[in-house]
Structure formats: C-alpha cells, structure tokens
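**Discrete fold encoding**
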Amino acid sequence: MTVRVGVITFPGSLDDGDARRAVRLAGAEPVALWHGSHDLEGVDALVLPGGFSYGDYLRAGAIAALAPIMSEVKDAAAKGMPILGICNGFQMLVEAHLLPGGLIRNAHQQFIRRDQRLVVENADTAWTNEFRRGQEIVIPLKNADGGYIASDETLARIQGENLVAFRYAGVNPNGSLDDIAGLTNERGNVVGLMPHPEHAIEPGFGPDTAAAMRSGVDGLRFFTAAVSAVVHSAA
C-alpha cells in the first residue's frame, strides 16, 4: 500500500515543504493540506509543521489550534491516526489539548538554533518505534518559544504514565521543565517535539556526526516509523 501523509500549511508555516520532502524520502506520498479546510483527503497520518503560524500572536500555536482543520485533526487523533507536531506544530498540539502542558518563551529570551542531543524516553509510539529507549540522537533545534511548562500534578502524571517522548541531553537549551523536549499521548499516536526531525533526513544536509560533517539522518526514522505503523495497522 502507498501510505499518504498529510502536511498542514498554516499562515506563517516555514517547514511544510521540508516535512513533505521527509515524507517522500520515507517512502510515503506527501499530501499538502490547508488550515482553512475541513477535508483531510483520506490521509493515513498527519504532520503539523514548524514555523510561526499567525505570527505567534497571543501565544505560539494558540490561534492555529483554532483553525478549521484542527477539528478534523482532533477527530483523527481520537481514532488513532499518527500525528506529529514539530516545533510550532508541538505548540499547536498543546494549545489544542491533544498533549498536556504548555510552551513559553525560552528562559534566556532569545531565539536559539543548534544541533541538539536528545534521549529517547519512549520508543513505543507511532513515530518513535524505530528507536530504542535510552538511545541518544541528534536533531536540529530552532525556536524562541520552546520552554516546556506544566503544573507539578501534570508533570507527575506525565512521568508516571511514560508520556515523555524525548529529553534534552547535554544542555537544556530553553529552560524546559524536567528537560522535556517532546511528549506523546497515552495512546502513542500523537507525538510533539520542539526539535526538527525533518532537517535530519538526508546525508549532506543534516547535523554533524563523528562519521562526517552534516551526515546525521536520525530524523528520517520518525517518518519511516510512522509509515511502518500505518502499514502494520492495516495488515
């Protein structure tokens, strides 16, 4: 079967084209979707890409979380469709209450861009099943509003229910509580993270590694994992 992955474009999306390329390199068919539509066009999975939707007014992702297509995204999430929110997409997922907590301005009040080490904390989701728990990966990071926050009660629930998908390793770049870089929902079909896996999918264009400059491709496994999850569920 040909897996079709929708990538939703919002006003201010910057990385939707990169996400569609990642989907294509993972062996799936990328489908461009528009924020003002109510039609998911029969896709098997969804990506909410990075950028600055609606200029990040109010709070990053807050207006986009109310876009017409988000009602379909919520329905799809409830039915188990794999959904990935990257950076601004992660912000949309928490604003839409598909993932717990919130994201605020970086602790140092500055935009940050770096190749970021992450530890995989949950390898049982639709988007992380090609990693192993405890594995360290490197994914590019670029954000100004990446500080993860939550109440003590929510943090305890996140930890107790194994909802942390990724933690920052080596350095916490934005002041996120408990070094949280990404989350999953209880079902494991919805994942959000601040770093950008779509920027680590092809040799020559990814993060530096010990093997060679710009050779890191850890991000590609997010997308191949989702394709495999869709194929497995359809079998």
